[in-house]
Amino acid sequence: MRTIFGEFGELASAEVIKDKFSGQSKGFGFVDMPSNSDADAAIKALNESDMKGRKLTVNEARPRAERPRGGGGGRY
């Protein structure tokens, strides 16, 4: 990922998300680019492109919606 996204500018970080038990890639990751214009260029160029026979989906990450906490009652 660093090589591909690095063609568009500086990377603050790049991480492939892996299964915590098997260590296998989950098929997605996150790249942080300090420059919005570099990030936009990478998204435009790489979204729906092909990498090693797999179609890439590249977009801006958005925060997860807050999920209600599970479980029943609380501690008192």
Radius of gyration over all CA atoms, rounded: 17 Å
Uncertain stretches: none
Spatial shape = globular
The averaged pLDDT comes out at: 89
- The H-level CATH homologous superfamily, spelled out, is RRM (RNA recognition motif) domain
- The CATH architecture name reads 2-Layer Sandwich
What's the CATH C level? Alpha Beta
What class would the helix/strand composition place it in?
A: alpha+beta
Biggest sheet, strands in spatial order? Answer: 1-2
Pfam families: RRM_1
Protein name: RNA-binding protein
Keywords: RNA-binding
InterPro entries: Nucleotide-bd_a/b_plait_sf, RBD_domain_sf, RRM_dom, SLIRP/GR-RBP-like
Q: Care to describe what's here?
A:
Keywords: RNA-binding. Residues 53-76 are annotated as: Disordered. Residues 1-63 form the RRM domain. It comes from Imhoffiella purpurea. This is RNA-binding protein. With 76 residues, the chain is of the alpha+beta class. It has one domain (2-55): Alpha-Beta Plaits (2-Layer Sandwich), CATH 3.30.70.330. It is built from two helices and four strands. It has helices at residues 2-6, 36-46; strands at residues 13-18, 25-32, 50-51, 54-55. The strands form two sheets. A two-stranded antiparallel sheet has the order 1-2. The radius of gyration is 17 Å and the shape is globular. The N and C termini lie far apart (48 Å).
